[in-house]
DNA sequence: ATGGTAGGGTTCCTA
């Protein structure tokens, strides 16, 4: 089974690239973030024609997430118990959707950006991560994958210019500690062993030709529970999908991350 | 300290 995660920065404007990506790499399950579409706006026709089903966090928000699967989608959950806003009508901005696909419990996540370290959104980000951690501890015994845009660079090696990010979100000790706690609990970054750094990123800002100069960040991760990690046989970051010179239409600012399971 | 690009929730806001 082959799974992937990709912050597409609008599913509607990226649908041609998404469909081409699914075809090219023979993807079974794709978790997407920043769908920027209501449920009634999702571009389903091409996906359904390819045999995929979709589970989306059904609110009107730019941070929306979804899971696209051709190996079944069961037990869909919008948000997780304890998530800030969980159970409320808008489900806390729909930053998390979980489903069981082909025996794997997959969570498509958009961790709050944080905006600025002195912004209330930064406090919300740290709280959100801790609440996710609380819930995720209960899933360690299952085949669980926490995938998506974490908006955290775990080490200086994951930032093209650490000195430029000194007073920015994504690299603060508190964010790194919040990320590290998932690893301490037993979740593993299953991609890094196959994509060693430095200079390996998943996101490049649109401006200043950051991609062309490989000035990026590594912020998209697949964290696997032990029984999930045991099944991983390979992984890669599809940099070509971030290349404006390749494919149809403009690219997302993130590249997809692909993981193979036995 | 600022600005640069992309997408939508648009003539501004978020990333």
Features:
Deoxyribonuclease I, Chain A; about 20% helix; six-stranded mixed beta sheet; DNA-binding
Written account of the structure:
The mean pLDDT is 93. The protein is globular. Helices cover 21% and strands 24% of the residues. With 262 residues, the chain is α+β, with helices and mostly antiparallel strands. The protein contains five helices and twelve strands. The protein has helices at residues 11-25, 45-49, 120-136, 173-185, 226-229; strands at 2-7, 29-33, 53-56, 65-69, 74-78, 96-101, 104-110, 144-149, 188-189, 220-224, 232-237, 257-261. It has a six-stranded mixed sheet with strand order 3-4-2-1-12-11, with no helix packed on it. It has a six-stranded mixed sheet with strand order 5-6-7-8-10-9. It has one domain (2-261): 4-Layer Sandwich (Deoxyribonuclease I, Chain A), CATH 3.60.10.10. The structure holds one DNA strand of 15 nucleotides. Keywords: Hydrolase, Magnesium, Metal-binding. Residues 240-262 are annotated as: Disordered. Its cofactor is Mn(2+); Mg(2+).
Extract low-pLDDT stretches. Answer: none
Q: Give me the secondary-structure category.
A: alpha+beta
Main sheet record: 6 strands, mixed
> Which range does the strand content fall in?
15-25%
How far apart are the termini? 7 Å
Return the CATH class.
Alpha Beta
Helix content percent band: 10-25%
CATH topology: Deoxyribonuclease I, Chain A
InterPro entries: AP_endonuc_1 (IPR004808), AP_endonuclease_F1_CS (IPR020848), Endo/exonu/phosph_ase_sf (IPR036691), Endo/exonuclease/phosphatase (IPR005135), ExoIII-like (IPR037493)
Protein name: Exodeoxyribonuclease III
Pfam families: Exo_endo_phos
Keywords: Hydrolase, Magnesium, Metal-binding
């Amino acid at each position: 089974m082959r799974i992937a995660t990709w912050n597409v920065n609008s599913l509607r404007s990226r649908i041609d690239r998404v469909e081409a990506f699914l075809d090219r790499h023979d993807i079974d399950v794709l978790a997407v973030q920043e769908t920027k579409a209501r449920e009634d706006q999702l571009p389903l026709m091409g996906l359904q024609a390819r045999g995929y089903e979709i589970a989306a966090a059904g609110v009107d928000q730019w941070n929306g997430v979804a899971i696209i699967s051709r190996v079944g989608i069961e037990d869909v959950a919008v948000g997780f118990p304890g998530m800030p806003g969980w159970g409320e009508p808008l489900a806390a901005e729909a930053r998390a959707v979980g489903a069981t696909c082909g025996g794997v419990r997959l969570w498509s996540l958009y961790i709050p950006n944080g905006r600025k370290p002195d912004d209330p959104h930064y406090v919300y980000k740290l709280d959100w991560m801790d609440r996710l951690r609380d819930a995720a501890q209960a899933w360690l015994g299952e085949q669980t994958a926490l995938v998506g845009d974490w908006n955290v660079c775990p080490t200086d090696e994951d930032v093209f210019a650490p000195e430029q990010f000194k007073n920015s979100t994504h690299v603060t000790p508190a964010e790194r500690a919040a990320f590290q706690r998932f690893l301490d609990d037993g979740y593993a970054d299953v991609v890094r062993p196959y994509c060693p750094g430095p200079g390996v990123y998943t996101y490049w800002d649109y401006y200043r030709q950051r991609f062309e100069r490989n000035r990026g960040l590594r912020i998209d991760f697949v964290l696997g529970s032990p029984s999930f990690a045991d099944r991983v046989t390979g992984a890669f970051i599809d940099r070509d999908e971030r290349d404006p010179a390749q494919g149809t239409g403009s690219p997302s600012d993130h590249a997809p991350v692909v993981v193979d399971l036995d």
